[in-house]
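A quick aside before the break. I want you to see a complete sequence-to-structure record at least once, exactly as it would be stored in a machine-readable document. Don't worry about memorizing anything.
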Amino acid sequence: MSKPFEVTIKDSIAHIIFNRPEKRNSVTLEFWTAFPEEVNKLNDRGDIRALIISSTGPTFCAGLDLGMMTEIGIGAGPNEETGRVRGHFREQVLEMQKWASCIEEARFPVITAIQGGCVGGGIDLICAADIRVASADAFFIVEEINIGIVADIGTLQRLPTIIPAGIAREWTMTGDKVSVDRAHEVGLINHIESDHENAVKKAFEIAENLASKSPLAMWGTKEAINYSRDHSIQDGLNFVSLWNAGMLHPEDVTASMMAKMEKKKPIYKDLKDRIYLKKK
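That is the input. The structure line, written in tokens, reads:
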């Protein structure tokens, strides 16, 4: 079976495109596994400076594929044959969480371009991204509460750090449809574009800007923001001081200053030329 997404790479910018439009880009077990494997592979290359995630068709992601619910044991009674899966359910969920965590843990910034419905697992994914662009027809639903389960792939942990906590509680507890305008108003969406084509175009514009920065400084910035989200201000200050003490490259600072004075684009070494990267 072919992968449920396509991958392209150009000028250090990677682009993952979900390609199951006939299924509204709903997520299967294969999808849950293949996606983090692909992101980790891009991360290990050391020459990728930004990643864009988009999809085909009218829907960005419809969340969990209905067939997958049976595969992982949701809805099975304790005495049914599929009930044996329940003992393994927590381990399955921990594996599924990598669907979103992998892009949060990547060394490069991740931008999502969203059109149409972004539901359930789709929200888990975009909440782990760094920047979110959406088309004017986009909408958002934390669907899990509507089907009697607790969202367990990352929305409950990440959404309240992006938008006001009270609004996050409302969205996750009501399961109501949220318009793109409202999502932009409260800070979930960075930019709204007229249609999907322009949303992807905007994502590439942002990616090109990010890719022009020092990849080492970009990685450190992402690490420091993620760390500070879960720690006190003092802990965050200590963390970033240690990061710069251990990772700062004067070469990048010099390249930045010289390029600014000469009105040229700075040139930075890829991470693969700076640090040890795991090879697979």
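Two observations worth writing down. The radius of gyration is 20 Å. The chain has twelve helices and nine strands. We'll return to this after the break.
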